[in-house]
Structures are given as structure tokens and as C-alpha cells.
Amino acid sequence: MRDWIYPTLIFVVFLYAMAFVLFYTYKGQTSYSGGKSRGSTTTLEKFRSEINKKIQ
DSSP assignment, residue 38? Predict the structure, then answer.
């Protein structure tokens, strides 16, 4: 009986850690859109002006 308790506990901890990582990875994808606004298309002119603002 002692032979399977330790591996089972380690496996449960592993599953818990993976669920934690997956939850926060998914939450991060939905809450942080990377500064993109939905529904708008970036034109070349807007992109160039933003790059020029960052350079100066």
C-alpha cells in the first residue's frame, strides 16, 4: 500500500500545478490583448506614425 501513495500524491500535485498554469495562461490571453483594439484595422500610415513617435 505504501508503494502507490507517494507516486499518487506527486501525480495529484502535478495535475494541480498543470491546472494552475493552464488557468492563468488562458486568463492571461483573454485579459491582456496586447494593446490591440478589437474591430479596427491598422493602416500603414498609422503604423509609420506610431513607429516615428517611438523613435523620437
Answer: T
- 54: buried, middle or exposed (CB in 10 Å: 19+, 13-18, 0-12)? exposed
Residue 46's nearest CA partner among 21, 38, 54, 24 is 54
Kindly state the cell numbers that stand for 50: 506610431
Task: Give tens-digit pLDDT for 35-51.
Answer: 555 556 678 888 888 88
- Is pTM beyond 0.85? Reply is no
Cell of 38: 478589437
Amino acid at 40: S
CB-facing half-sphere around the CA of 43: CA atoms within 13 A: 3
Distance CA 31, CA 7 (A): 36
